[in-house]
Amino acid sequence: MCPGHSGLVGNPGTHSGDGGVKAADTLTTAGADIGGAHPDPLGAIQGELDSLWLNHPHVPDDVRTQMSIAAAEIGANIVEHTGGRQPVRIRMGSEVVGDQVHVEFTDDGPPVDIDLTSVAMPDEMAERGRGLALAQTVLDQLAYRCDDFGNHWTLISQRFG
């Protein structure tokens, strides 16, 4: 599927090699039309996080908010940019590992040509283009890699404790 392209922003020492993310809901969307086969993929992303918070009430509210923002931004980017007009299947996993929240998205869209080290907030008058920059701001780590199984986006929260 892709030539092993990957990108990483953050502290690589905070992420386990196996991804540390459990299997969860599968969302199917169609390009920029977030309706697709799943009527509300962003709602499903928040629903997965809400379930995580129920099982881990010790996660502070600010970390929950930050992870919700980051997951929504990355999920929306996958829906809008990865599929074009073709349906994209998105799988989301989440878990609390020690004092951090880990979220991973895997999609079957075409590889993404992105250099996460060059992502920056756009001009204040820009109407678009803030998603990756917002996610990077609130996360300890944002990583992207591509392999034979698809595109993988790993989000790791700031430490709490």
Structure description:
The model is unreliable at 8-36 (pLDDT under 50). The radius of gyration is 15 Å and the shape is globular. The protein has a single domain (6-157), classed as Histidine kinase-like ATPase, C-terminal domain (Heat Shock Protein 90). Strands 1-5-6-4-3-2 form a 6-stranded antiparallel sheet. 30% of the residues are buried. The chain has helices at 41-55, 61-82, 131-138; strands at 6-10, 26-30, 87-97, 100-107, 139-147, 150-157. The protein has 161 residues and is α+β, with helices and mostly antiparallel strands.
CATH topology heading: Heat Shock Protein 90
Spatial ordering of strands, largest sheet: 1-5-6-4-3-2
Number of strands: 6
Strand portion:
25-35%
The overall number of domains is: 1
Question: What does the oligomeric state look like here?
Answer: single chain
Fourth CATH level, the homologous superfamily: Histidine kinase-like ATPase, C-terminal domain
**What gyration radius follows from the Cα positions, in whole Å?**
15 Å
Order of helices and strands: EEHHEEHEE
Shape descriptor reads: globular
Average pLDDT level: 76
How many angstroms does the end-to-end distance come to? Answer: 39 Å
Helix content: 25-40%
Number of helical segments with 4 or more residues: 3
